[in-house]
Write a structure and sequence with these properties.
heterodimer, A: mainly beta, four-stranded antiparallel sheet, 11 strands, B: mainly beta
Chain lengths: 116, 110
Protein backbone atom coordinates (compact mmCIF):
# COMPACT_ATOMS: atom_id res chain seq x y z
CA UNK A 1 0.00 0.00 0.00
CA UNK A 2 1.40 3.37 -1.00
CA UNK A 3 -0.54 5.55 1.37
CA UNK A 4 -3.58 7.78 1.03
CA UNK A 5 -4.42 8.54 -2.59
CA UNK A 6 -6.50 11.48 -3.81
CA UNK A 7 -7.84 12.20 -7.27
CA UNK A 8 -7.73 14.42 -9.14
CA UNK A 9 -4.67 16.35 -8.00
CA UNK A 10 -5.91 19.54 -9.58
CA UNK A 11 -9.35 20.69 -10.70
CA UNK A 12 -10.33 23.92 -12.38
CA UNK A 13 -14.04 24.51 -12.71
CA UNK A 14 -16.40 27.30 -13.59
CA UNK A 15 -18.53 28.85 -10.90
CA UNK A 16 -21.83 27.03 -10.56
CA UNK A 17 -20.53 23.65 -11.71
CA UNK A 18 -20.47 20.54 -9.53
CA UNK A 19 -17.22 18.77 -8.68
CA UNK A 20 -16.42 15.45 -7.04
CA UNK A 21 -13.18 14.37 -5.43
CA UNK A 22 -12.11 10.88 -4.48
CA UNK A 23 -9.99 9.61 -1.60
CA UNK A 24 -8.62 6.09 -1.21
CA UNK A 25 -7.36 5.58 2.34
CA UNK A 26 -4.69 3.20 3.57
CA UNK A 27 -6.36 -0.17 3.19
CA UNK A 28 -6.61 -1.30 6.81
CA UNK A 29 -7.65 2.13 8.12
CA UNK A 30 -11.22 2.42 9.33
CA UNK A 31 -11.31 6.18 9.91
CA UNK A 32 -11.28 8.72 7.08
CA UNK A 33 -11.19 12.51 7.35
CA UNK A 34 -11.69 15.42 4.98
CA UNK A 35 -10.02 18.79 5.52
CA UNK A 36 -9.90 22.05 3.61
CA UNK A 37 -6.86 24.30 3.51
CA UNK A 38 -6.72 27.82 2.16
CA UNK A 39 -3.56 29.77 1.43
CA UNK A 40 -1.58 30.62 4.54
CA UNK A 41 -3.86 28.70 6.89
CA UNK A 42 -3.76 25.35 8.61
CA UNK A 43 -6.08 22.57 7.46
CA UNK A 44 -9.66 22.93 8.72
CA UNK A 45 -11.71 19.89 9.63
CA UNK A 46 -14.75 19.20 7.43
CA UNK A 47 -15.99 15.73 8.30
CA UNK A 48 -14.95 12.23 9.25
CA UNK A 49 -16.14 8.65 8.84
CA UNK A 50 -15.63 5.57 10.88
CA UNK A 51 -16.13 2.75 8.43
CA UNK A 52 -19.17 3.85 6.40
CA UNK A 53 -20.73 6.00 9.13
CA UNK A 54 -20.30 9.76 8.93
CA UNK A 55 -19.80 10.66 12.60
CA UNK A 56 -19.16 14.39 12.59
CA UNK A 57 -19.57 17.32 10.23
CA UNK A 58 -18.15 20.79 10.64
CA UNK A 59 -20.26 23.91 10.29
CA UNK A 60 -17.93 24.67 7.36
CA UNK A 61 -19.67 21.87 5.48
CA UNK A 62 -22.58 23.78 3.99
CA UNK A 63 -25.52 22.07 2.33
CA UNK A 64 -23.69 22.34 -1.00
CA UNK A 65 -21.11 19.86 0.30
CA UNK A 66 -21.75 16.15 0.69
CA UNK A 67 -19.40 13.32 1.55
CA UNK A 68 -19.91 9.61 1.29
CA UNK A 69 -18.06 6.45 2.13
CA UNK A 70 -20.52 3.84 0.93
CA UNK A 71 -18.56 0.65 1.57
CA UNK A 72 -16.24 1.87 4.28
CA UNK A 73 -13.32 2.04 1.87
CA UNK A 74 -12.92 4.98 -0.55
CA UNK A 75 -14.74 8.25 0.01
CA UNK A 76 -16.06 10.99 -2.25
CA UNK A 77 -16.54 14.67 -1.51
CA UNK A 78 -18.96 16.52 -3.79
CA UNK A 79 -19.39 20.26 -4.00
CA UNK A 80 -22.51 21.46 -5.80
CA UNK A 81 -22.90 24.87 -7.40
CA UNK A 82 -19.30 25.81 -6.73
CA UNK A 83 -18.43 29.33 -5.63
CA UNK A 84 -15.13 31.17 -5.85
CA UNK A 85 -14.81 30.88 -2.07
CA UNK A 86 -14.63 27.10 -2.46
CA UNK A 87 -11.19 27.45 -4.06
CA UNK A 88 -8.83 25.62 -1.71
CA UNK A 89 -6.79 22.48 -1.19
CA UNK A 90 -8.98 19.56 -0.09
CA UNK A 91 -7.07 17.05 1.98
CA UNK A 92 -8.01 13.52 2.95
CA UNK A 93 -6.50 11.56 5.83
CA UNK A 94 -6.97 8.11 7.30
CA UNK A 95 -6.16 6.37 10.56
CA UNK A 96 -6.80 3.13 12.40
CA UNK A 97 -9.01 3.65 15.41
CA UNK A 98 -11.09 1.90 18.01
CA UNK A 99 -13.87 3.44 20.03
CA UNK A 100 -11.41 4.50 22.68
CA UNK A 101 -8.27 5.46 20.88
CA UNK A 102 -6.99 6.73 17.61
CA UNK A 103 -3.64 6.29 15.97
CA UNK A 104 -1.47 8.37 13.73
CA UNK A 105 -3.28 10.01 10.82
CA UNK A 106 -1.73 9.99 7.34
CA UNK A 107 -2.61 12.50 4.67
CA UNK A 108 -2.97 12.31 0.93
CA UNK A 109 -1.43 14.81 -1.46
CA UNK A 110 -4.64 16.76 -1.72
CA UNK A 111 -6.86 18.02 -4.50
CA UNK A 112 -6.36 21.66 -5.38
CA UNK A 113 -9.64 23.22 -6.53
CA UNK A 114 -9.77 26.49 -8.42
CA UNK A 115 -13.17 27.99 -9.16
CA UNK A 116 -13.11 30.61 -11.92
CA UNK B 1 -13.61 24.22 20.96
CA UNK B 2 -9.97 23.48 21.58
CA UNK B 3 -7.47 26.17 20.55
CA UNK B 4 -4.06 25.34 19.12
CA UNK B 5 -1.47 28.10 19.00
CA UNK B 6 1.89 27.79 17.32
CA UNK B 7 4.87 30.06 17.69
CA UNK B 8 6.69 31.69 16.12
CA UNK B 9 4.49 32.22 13.05
CA UNK B 10 7.53 32.80 10.85
CA UNK B 11 11.17 31.87 11.26
CA UNK B 12 14.22 32.52 9.12
CA UNK B 13 17.37 30.55 9.87
CA UNK B 14 20.85 30.34 8.50
CA UNK B 15 21.75 26.83 7.42
CA UNK B 16 23.27 24.97 10.33
CA UNK B 17 21.35 26.82 13.03
CA UNK B 18 19.10 25.19 15.62
CA UNK B 19 15.51 26.14 16.37
CA UNK B 20 12.59 25.35 18.65
CA UNK B 21 8.96 25.50 17.54
CA UNK B 22 6.22 25.58 20.12
CA UNK B 23 2.63 24.37 20.18
CA UNK B 24 0.24 25.31 22.99
CA UNK B 25 -3.21 23.77 23.29
CA UNK B 26 -6.11 24.83 25.45
CA UNK B 27 -7.58 21.53 26.59
CA UNK B 28 -6.73 17.89 27.26
CA UNK B 29 -5.83 15.93 24.16
CA UNK B 30 -5.66 12.27 23.24
CA UNK B 31 -3.04 12.62 20.56
CA UNK B 32 -0.65 15.14 19.09
CA UNK B 33 1.15 15.05 15.78
CA UNK B 34 3.77 17.24 14.13
CA UNK B 35 3.72 17.57 10.35
CA UNK B 36 5.93 19.22 7.76
CA UNK B 37 4.10 20.55 4.71
CA UNK B 38 6.32 20.61 1.67
CA UNK B 39 6.06 23.17 -1.15
CA UNK B 40 3.72 20.82 -3.06
CA UNK B 41 1.25 20.74 -0.18
CA UNK B 42 1.95 17.22 1.05
CA UNK B 43 1.74 16.81 4.82
CA UNK B 44 4.63 14.66 5.97
CA UNK B 45 4.34 12.93 9.34
CA UNK B 46 7.18 13.90 11.66
CA UNK B 47 6.09 12.73 15.09
CA UNK B 48 3.11 11.09 16.72
CA UNK B 49 3.71 12.22 20.30
CA UNK B 50 0.81 12.48 22.77
CA UNK B 51 3.38 12.61 25.58
CA UNK B 52 7.07 12.18 26.23
CA UNK B 53 10.06 12.72 23.98
CA UNK B 54 10.99 11.24 20.63
CA UNK B 55 13.92 11.75 18.31
CA UNK B 56 14.35 11.11 14.62
CA UNK B 57 17.68 12.20 13.21
CA UNK B 58 18.08 15.95 13.49
CA UNK B 59 14.51 16.36 14.73
CA UNK B 60 13.14 15.72 18.16
CA UNK B 61 9.88 16.50 19.91
CA UNK B 62 8.65 16.73 23.47
CA UNK B 63 5.05 16.87 24.65
CA UNK B 64 4.13 17.80 28.22
CA UNK B 65 0.45 16.93 28.19
CA UNK B 66 -0.19 18.08 31.76
CA UNK B 67 1.06 21.56 30.86
CA UNK B 68 -0.58 21.52 27.43
CA UNK B 69 2.36 22.18 25.17
CA UNK B 70 4.67 20.47 22.73
CA UNK B 71 8.04 21.48 21.33
CA UNK B 72 9.69 20.54 18.04
CA UNK B 73 13.46 20.88 17.90
CA UNK B 74 15.34 21.17 14.64
CA UNK B 75 19.09 20.92 14.89
CA UNK B 76 21.68 21.73 12.23
CA UNK B 77 18.97 23.02 9.91
CA UNK B 78 19.19 22.42 6.17
CA UNK B 79 17.57 24.22 3.27
CA UNK B 80 15.34 21.19 2.74
CA UNK B 81 13.82 21.82 6.18
CA UNK B 82 12.07 24.88 4.73
CA UNK B 83 8.30 24.73 4.66
CA UNK B 84 5.44 24.93 7.11
CA UNK B 85 5.38 22.96 10.34
CA UNK B 86 2.00 22.13 11.81
CA UNK B 87 1.01 20.87 15.20
CA UNK B 88 -2.28 18.95 15.25
CA UNK B 89 -4.14 17.69 18.29
CA UNK B 90 -6.97 15.28 18.79
CA UNK B 91 -9.23 16.36 21.61
CA UNK B 92 -10.08 14.07 24.48
CA UNK B 93 -13.79 14.62 24.62
CA UNK B 94 -16.57 14.67 22.07
CA UNK B 95 -15.07 12.84 19.14
CA UNK B 96 -11.81 12.23 17.42
CA UNK B 97 -11.33 15.02 14.92
CA UNK B 98 -7.89 16.53 14.64
CA UNK B 99 -7.45 20.28 15.03
CA UNK B 100 -4.50 22.05 13.44
CA UNK B 101 -2.60 25.11 14.51
CA UNK B 102 -1.90 27.89 12.03
CA UNK B 103 1.65 26.63 11.48
CA UNK B 104 5.20 27.96 11.66
CA UNK B 105 6.65 28.99 8.31
CA UNK B 106 10.35 28.16 8.26
CA UNK B 107 12.85 29.38 5.68
CA UNK B 108 16.41 28.12 5.90
CA UNK B 109 18.96 30.20 3.99
CA UNK B 110 21.99 28.61 2.39
Amino acid sequence: DTGVSQNPRHKITKRGQNVTFRCDPISEHNRLYWYRQTLGQGPEFLTYFQNEAQLEKSRLLSDRFSAERPKGSFSTLEIQRTEQGDSAMYLCASSLASNRANTEAFFGQGTRLTVV
Amino acid sequence: GIQVEQSPPDLILQEGANSTLRCNFSDSVNNLQWFHQNPWGQLINLFYIPSGTKQNGRLSATTVATERYSLLYISSSQTTDSGVYFCAVERSAGGFKTIFGAGTRLFVKA
